[in-house]
Amino acid sequence: MQPYLQYIVLLGAVVIVGAFVMPRKKQEPTLPSQTMQNMENALEQFMENMEKDNEELVDLVRRAQQESKVDAESKEQRIAELEKKCEQLAAQLQKSQASSSAIAPQAAPTLSIPNDAAEKDASIYKLPEPAEEAPPQTNTIHSRYSELFLLYEQGKSIEMISKKLGMNKGEVQLIIQLAKQEESAHA
Which of 13, 92, 126, 148 is deepest in the core (most CB within 10 A)? Predict the structure, then answer.
């Protein structure tokens, strides 16, 4: 069995010598320095553009935040003004309701006839004329917002009325509701 072993060893030696003798594959040459320089320049340009775009985006976000803050402050101020107006309208409504309820008891006249004169001639004493109804108050919601009610009676929408008069839709709705309450209180 030794001859087989010799053949195997000899075959292995031929393979090893053949491996050294065969030409090797060429390795890829390294990129020239000009190409590397161009790639570095392109990468730097890209990074500069990204930084510039990022700064513009940050500025845009900052301006949007400032605008929204100013807008929120103006809305808060408008809400505070509307709340004051609402309180004033409610106070005026209560005042007008109180004055209308104060007028009602005065309408019932009383007859005061002295005892000795009543025996002589009761016909000379007449009941006082009932007080004429108080003239309608000129300081009503309808009079203060006549243009609003004119548009509302023409069938215009609340949104259109608010745009035309430069008011908030909620404010227009509130005025209309207060006018309805005022009418029902006087009816």
Answer: 148
Answer yes or no: pTM beyond 0.70: no
CB 126 within 8 A of CB 112: no
Q: Are 128 and 109 spatial neighbours (Cβ–Cβ below 8 Å)?
A: yes
Alpha carbon distance 92, 89 (integer Å) = 5
Residue 71 carries which DSSP code?
H
Question: 3-class DSSP state for residue 9?
Answer: helix
| Helices marked H in 107-157 | 115-120, 141-144, 146-153
Cα–Cα distance measured from residue 156 to residue 165, given in angstroms and rounded to the nearest whole number? 12
Q: Contact at 8 Å (CB) between 163 and 156?
A: no
| pLDDT score of 111 | 41
Instruction: Tell me the per-residue pLDDT of 96-142, one tens digit each, with 9 for 90 and over.
Output: 888 777 665 554 444 444 455 444 444 444 444 545 555 555 678 88
Output DSSP code: residue 138.
Answer: S
